[in-house]
Amino acid sequence: MSRHTTLPGPHLTALYLLHAGSMDVRLISLSVERHWKHAVRLVPTLDEARVVLVDCDRPGVEAAFEQLGPYPSAGIVCYAFHPKDHALRFPNRLILGKPLNLDALPGILAKAANDTAAIKATVTARRQVPAPVPTPPMAAVETPSSLGHGLHMDEERDLCGAMDDIPLTPGTPLSEKLFFAPDQYLIGHLSRAVEQAVASGRPHVISGLPHLIGVQPQPLPVCVTAFRGNQLRPFSMTQLPHATARIVSALIFSESVGTETVYAAEDFLWNIAAWAARGRLPVGTDPYQRVRLKAWPNFTQAFLSPHALRIAALWTRTWASPVEIATQLAIPHRYVFSVFSSAHFSGLLDRNAPTVAPIAVIPVAAHPSPSPKQEQRPSILSRILRKLLNAV
Amino acid sequence: MRSERARHNKIIFSGTVGAGKSTAIAALSDIPPVCTEAVASDETAALKKTTTVAMDYGLLNLPDGEKVMLYGTPGQERFSFMWEILSEGGIGLVLLINNANVDPLKDLENYLAAFKKFIASTAVTIGVTHMDRAQEPGLDAYRKKLAELGHDPLPAVFRADARNREDVATLVKALLYTLNPGLVDA
């Protein structure tokens, strides 16, 4: 699996956000301000743009494209929840999936800008000879496999990143990229707000964000917000400037506009943590320490990262480190790290392993070699599972 | 413990009156479920107009032509003699508890006791329904109750909407992974 890097270089990619919603503008602006200063520069007009980012999901996108007519030298990158659907409407456009992979985006923007410039140069050169000039299809531009139309990989990468496995035993220094600092994300603020609300028995509110997030500690801890689900995910994935969010105690948290959604705090924390973690661990975590899940998360509401059900099934019954769980299930470590991070913040992690941890003797990845006949006929449980996976 | 092959291809749905057993089977079944609903005449009438008096029956058609039966037990405890018969040879139990009942945690205890032998040799997942009408007890209270009852590890407990196929499928998937976390889809 290839890894994306932000393209450094002396030339900033001049980016114009066309037809993007206010939330996206804010998030991308924050990302530029905090992380892409040396790669991307937001420009206020199309005249200055080397590349344009277009939200295809918003009504009137066709009219937005018409604005681009006078700017053939600008690269165009689109994004949408369902790129495949839009690929039919706009067959020659590069369309990324939502939420945008913020690690990869600067590189993609730079590439689109450079490719378009190169195409323009080629076209200009060919115009000097009397030959028909085929319009190079934008879809043919090489794009990272995990973005754009590769929805499955795209979602997987957004959920769990692309981190390689770490050594199976401690001793080797671990990459800083393995860890994330919760305080730089929404999850850090949310976690503190829930803690303070529960400890004080009083509602708390996170302000300073596009919408308030209220935490009601009683009778059962819940989080209330007007953030829509499709806003929360990208917002949770983005690092917030230090002073963006503030936690304040409130006598009551009134539902002012009636569009708020109420989430069980545990589910909410699980999801926000998963989106922030993206296959990483909270800073300070020892990936070799044995822990256990106190209970299954509420997987009808909590986000199901790849293999999360299998991980929960195993980790509720055995003390094991994240690395051991991944090894037993024969899955990439990042999937287990994702579950670990969510469990950590939602209070489902038990770190008090007995002094002598029981050795897990569980038939998981290590299946006995099946006979040829058995190989042709998987177990009934596997077949039911496949049916359910395909059906839902 | 019997081998997978020796078991019948049967998943049992049980739980309290009005918890959504029939609905859950209907949500998952590939055929219109065979129901034995009748007009409720006992204390059930206070909870809903009709109730299952024998069993519900649905079907999952597997791609290779094999079938998995989905059996729903009647909710009333006076039919509890049927529970053991219906569950005989089943793969596992999906237990649905109506959170809007007077004492859902007691219901949980009663049903776990009734299916104790079956659960011991298979597995159980628990769907808590009607939480939109009754938020309490929360899932944590269910987990505490299960721990008190000596369930270690705790079975999966999910908030569930029996009308939602995805919720019901998630309960069944959790059941399958509880039986074998190493399971991969074939």
Automatic annotation (TrEMBL), chain A:
The protein's name in its UniProt record: Uncharacterized protein
Gene source species: Zoogloea oleivorans
From TrEMBL, chain B:
Gene Ontology MF annotations: GTP binding; hydrolase activity
Nucleotide-binding in keyword set: yes
InterPro entries: Gliding_Motility_GTPase, Gpn, P-loop_NTPase
Domain of life the protein comes from: Bacteria
Keywords from the named record: GTP-binding, Hydrolase, Nucleotide-binding
A Pfam family reported for this protein in Swiss-Prot or TrEMBL: ATP_bind_1
UniProt family annotation: Belongs to the GPN-loop GTPase family.
Annotated protein name in UniProt: GTP-binding protein
Species this chain originates from: Zoogloea oleivorans
